[in-house]
Design a protein that fits this description.
The protein has 9 helices and 4 strands. The protein has about 200 residues and is mainly alpha-helical. It has a domain at about 80-195: Orthogonal Bundle (Helicase, Ruva Protein, domain 3). It is globular and about 60 Å long.
Length: about 200
C-alpha cells in the first residue's frame, strides 16, 4: 500500500493518485481467512465496523437483486482532479497545538495507560497504537472537520474517530479478553480517562 503499487501474477502495476485501498475482513473462524501481521494492519487508516442491514434495507437489497433487472449503473461523483483538490483543502485545516497534544496523549494511553492515569487499564493492552495512528488520526480529524464545514479541528472531531482509528491498532491482553473486554470498550475508557483540552 505504501509503495503505491500492486503485483498480480508477477506483474507490478503502479497506481496513480488518488490512491485508496479498501478491504473487507471476514470472521477469523471462516475458512480461507488469515490474520494480517500487525505492521500490515497498521497501514490501514481505519477499521470501520459495518453491521447487518436493517430489515427495510435488506428488503430493498432483496427486491433489487432478485428482480432480474440489470445492475444499476455506477457513475463517478468526482474526478481525480477534484479529489486531489479536496485533499489539498484538508491540508489547510487548522489543528491547534492542544488538539495535537490530545491526539498524542490518547495514543500514548494505549501504550502506557497507567502512566496516563488510567490504572484500570493496566495490563489490559498487549500492544498499543503506533505513531502511524497519531498521524492518521490527525489527518482524519482534519477531513472530518472539513466535511462538517469547519476550517479547524475540535476535540469532537478527534473523539468521533477514536474507534475507527484505534480498534485495529491495539491488541488486548489475555486478561482483558478473559474479562470480556473488546477494543471499543478499552477505547471508551481511554477517552473517559484523558482530559479534553
Amino acid at each position: 500500500m505504501q509503495e503505491r503499487q500492486g503485483t498480480i501474477g508477477g506483474t507490478t502495476y503502479l497506481l496513480e493518485e488518488p490512491f485508496l485501498v479498501l478491504a473487507t475482513q471476514n470472521p477469523i473462524e471462516q475458512e480461507g481467512t488469515y490474520p494480517l501481521p500487525e505492521a500490515q494492519v497498521d497501514r490501514f487508516l481505519m477499521k470501520v465496523r459495518v453491521g447487518y442491514p436493517s430489515k427495510e434495507e435488506e428488503r430493498k437489497v432483496l427486491d433489487r437483486m432478485a428482480s432480474g433487472q440489470p445492475m444499476p449503473e455506477v457513475r463517478h461523483v468526482a474526478t481525480p482532479k477534484q479529489i486531489m483538490e479536496a485533499r489539498r483543502g484538508v491540508d489547510q485545516i487548522f489543528v491547534d497545538d492542544k488538539i495535537r497534544d490530545y491526539i498524542v496523549d490518547l495514543v500514548h494511553a494505549t501504550r502506557e495507560p497507567k502512566a496516563a492515569g488510567i490504572g484500570s487499564l493496566d495490563g489490559m493492552i498487549e500492544v498499543g497504537a503506533s505513531p502511524r495512528a497519531s498521524i492518521g488520526w490527525m489527518r482524519a480529524s482534519k477531513a472530518h472537520a472539513l466535511l462538517q464545514g469547519r476550517t479547524y479541528v475540535t476535540p469532537h472531531d478527534v473523539k468521533s474517530l477514536a474507534g475507527d482509528i484505534l480498534r485495529h491498532r491495539i491488541a488486548l491482553s489475555f486478561e482483558a479478553e478473559a474479562e470480556g473486554k473488546d477494543p471499543d470498550m478499552i477505547i471508551g475508557e481511554i477517552l473517559d480517562g484523558i482530559l479534553v483540552p
